[in-house]
Structures are given as C-alpha cells and as structure tokens.
Amino acid sequence: MNESEKATTKWHVAWSNQCIEIWFLLHFNYYNSDIHRTEYFEKLSEIFKGYKLDKYEKNNEDIFEILMKYGNLENAINNAKRLCKENEGQPPSKMAPATKVYELIEILKPHMM
Questions:
Q1: Are 34 and 22 in contact (CB under 8 A)?
Q2: Which of 7, 27, 48, 98 has a Cα-to-Cα distance from 65 of 20 to 30 A?
Q3: pLDDT for 71
Q4: Any alpha helices (H) in the chain, and if so which ranges?
Q5: Angstrom distances, CA of residue 86 to CA of 16, 90, 92, 94
Q6: Backbone dihedral region of 89: left (phi > 0), alpha (psi from -120 to 50 degrees) or beta?
Q7: How wide is the angle at C-alpha 75 spanned by C-alphas 85 and 60, nearest 5°?
Q8: How confident is the model over 36-61, as pLDDT tens digits?
Q9: Residues near 25 by Cβ (< 8 Å), separated by ≥ 6?
Q10: Measured between alpha carbons, how far is 28 from 47 in angstroms, rounded to an integer?
Q11: How far is it, in rounded angstroms, from Cα 78 to Cα 59?
C-alpha cells in the first residue's frame, strides 16, 4: 500500500452498547430499553429455551449457526438501523442500546450466504 492509499483508507468500527448481545437479540425482536447486560443474557436464554436449546452462554461457539437457523438477519439489520436512528445525534458512548454491527454484516453478507 502506498502513501496515498493509506491516506484514503476508511475505518469503521462495529460496536454494540451495552454488549454484543443486543445484536443477537435484534435477530428475534426489537428492543430499545437500556437494560443491564445480564438481562440481555436472560432474554437470549428465554428465546433459546423456546427453540429447545441450551441457555445462552457468552462463549457459545455455535452462536452464528443459531442466529442463522432461528433468527432473522434482515430483521436484525433493520432493528439495528432503527435503534441508531432513534439515537441519532448522540455520541456512540451515549447510544444505548444500539449497535453498528449491521454495517459490518452488510459488507460481509454477500460472502456469508
């Protein structure tokens, strides 16, 4: 990469407030209440129970497969955009709940399916 290419490189951050679990939850429902991260885990465990899955664990290695099988990626993207729109004008640190993971997914989506 030459110097002019370095100068035009754009970086995007895929963040989630309070935690990545808001992104996971948005696959199933729209949530806009700023709750503590442990409550996100409980909500995911309730959803998983409905699908006869083990309770949600932070280190679940199958989370991608679970989200793709039982969740809805398009809903997650739309729900995340809706959250960001509702929080528009605030710095990312004050946007809660909110997630920008959808921006990364929109870039990767053609390579995921």
A1: no
A2: 98
A3: 96
A4: 3-8, 21-25, 37-50, 63-70, 73-86, 101-112
A5: 15, 10, 12, 12
A6: left
A7: 110
A8: 989 999 999 999 999 999 999 999 99
A9: 31, 40, 43, 44, 47
A10: 8
A11: 26
Between CA 35 and CA 113, with CA 13 as vertex, the angle to 5 degrees is 90
Decide if 45 contacts 64 (C-beta within 8 A).
Answer: no
Would the pLDDT of 27 be above 70? yes
78 Cβ contact partners less than 8 Å away, ≥ 6 residues apart: none
Residue 9 has which token pair? Answer: 């490189």
**pTM of structure:** 0.86
Which residues partner with 98 through β-bridges? Answer: 17
User: Cβ distance 100 to 13 under 8 Å?
Assistant: yes
Q: Among 55, 61, 32, which residue's Cα sits nearest to residue 43?
A: 55
Closest of 30, 12, 6, 52 to residue 97, by C-alpha: 30
